[in-house]
């Protein structure tokens, strides 16, 4: 059964087209990752799915009765404790007081936040604030959980903790749609990955198919041309997708058989390798890359 279906969606801001002719179907119990560089329209797509934004054109059909939404940034300046904040959010959602109290207690326990119930939100770590952010989205037992950059700004330990939490949520059967730019999370968690690029989306396949691809991360120093790199990546037929995480840090998913060739082309254009997953190049070639300080992974 389809939980959400988008048909030929357009969305614009101040006459600037953000998303163009988007069609997408998300099934019950599916976990969908939405990738793309900053400003590509990932968050806008998520808000359209949530019903927070009306499309300029097109149709959105939702079969779910309840949808939970986790914004990218949890509340920072509220004077509430987590328990106070969640009670307010539950009351706004019209949840029965007895049910709300029991559910908050259960979710605090599941997420290891029991001892932080009475601590002001502003004093919590980023990881624990994000857990509270997720709890508020789960208060009404949503059929669909939408999360905007759930790991953004977290340290490595907090990211790992939340990755395990998201895996556990996925196993409950809830439909999950999340945006991400962290390397690895979409492949580990998602059943399907879509990439937002130049106002449109394209399928990047299922996680089970990712063994056919390699991930390359590289940095473009000031001496190289970012515009030349962008043009090369856009026109390459061997690239499944690429993401610009920052002004000059790129992540590229490339067909396995073309990995070595792609690395060579990146180096020729002035790119500085940071990471390569499951490299298939010869030992001599790998040693040459290792001299640049590049990291390798067998995963």
From TrEMBL:
<protein>
    <submittedName>
        <fullName>ABC-type multidrug transport system, ATPase component</fullName>
    </submittedName>
</protein>
<feature type="domain" description="ABC transporter">
    <location>
        <begin position="4"/>
        <end position="223"/>
    </location>
</feature>
<dbReference type="InterPro" id="IPR051782">
    <property type="entry name" value="ABC_Transporter_VariousFunc"/>
</dbReference>
<dbReference type="GO" id="GO:0016887">
    <property type="term" value="F:ATP hydrolysis activity"/>
</dbReference>
<keyword id="KW-0813">Transport</keyword>
<keyword id="KW-0067">ATP-binding</keyword>
<keyword id="KW-0547">Nucleotide-binding</keyword>
<dbReference type="InterPro" id="IPR027417">
    <property type="entry name" value="P-loop_NTPase"/>
</dbReference>
<dbReference type="InterPro" id="IPR003439">
    <property type="entry name" value="ABC_transporter-like_ATP-bd"/>
</dbReference>
<dbReference type="InterPro" id="IPR003593">
    <property type="entry name" value="AAA+_ATPase"/>
</dbReference>
<dbReference type="InterPro" id="IPR017871">
    <property type="entry name" value="ABC_transporter-like_CS"/>
</dbReference>
<dbReference type="GO" id="GO:0005524">
    <property type="term" value="F:ATP binding"/>
</dbReference>
<dbReference type="Pfam" id="PF00005">
    <property type="entry name" value="ABC_tran"/>
</dbReference>
């Amino acid at each position: 059964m389809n939980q959400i279906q988008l048909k030929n969606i357009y969305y614009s801001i101040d006459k600037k087209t953000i998303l163009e002719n988007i069609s997408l179907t998300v099934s019950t119990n599916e976990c969908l990752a939405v990738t793309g560089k900053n400003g590509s329209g990932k968050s806008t797509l998520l808000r359209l799915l949530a019903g927070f934004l009306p499309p300029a054109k097109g149709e959105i059909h939702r079969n779910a009765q309840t949808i939970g939404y986790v914004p990218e940034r949890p509340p920072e300046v509220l004077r509430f404790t987590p328990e106070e904040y969640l009670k307010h959010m539950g009351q706004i959602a019209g949840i029965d007081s007895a049910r709300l109290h029991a559910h908050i207690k259960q979710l605090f326990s599941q997420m290891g936040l029991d001892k932080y119930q009475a601590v002001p939100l502003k004093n919590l770590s980023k990881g624990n604030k994000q857990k509270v952010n997720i709890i508020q989205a789960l208060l009404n037992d949503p059929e669909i959980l939408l999360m905007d950059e759930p790991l953004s700004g977290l340290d490595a330990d907090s990211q790992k903790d939340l990755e395990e939490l998201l895996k556990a949520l996925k196993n409950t059967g809830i439909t999950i749609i999340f945006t991400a730019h962290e390397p690895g999370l979409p492949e580990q968690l998602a059943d399907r990955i879509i990439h937002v690029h130049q106002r449109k989306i394209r399928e990047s396949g299922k996680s089970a198919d990712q063994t056919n691809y390699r991930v390359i991360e590289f940095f473009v120093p000031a001496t190289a041309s970012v515009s030349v790199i962008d043009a090369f990546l856009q026109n390459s037929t061997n690239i499944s997708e690429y993401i610009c995480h920052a002004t000059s840090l790129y992540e590229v998913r490339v067909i396995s058989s073309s990995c070595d060739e792609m690395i060579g082309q990146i180096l020729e254009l002035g790119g500085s390798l940071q990471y390569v997953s499951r490299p298939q190049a010869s030992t001599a070639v790998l040693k040459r890359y290792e001299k640049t300080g590049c990291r390798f992974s067998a995963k």
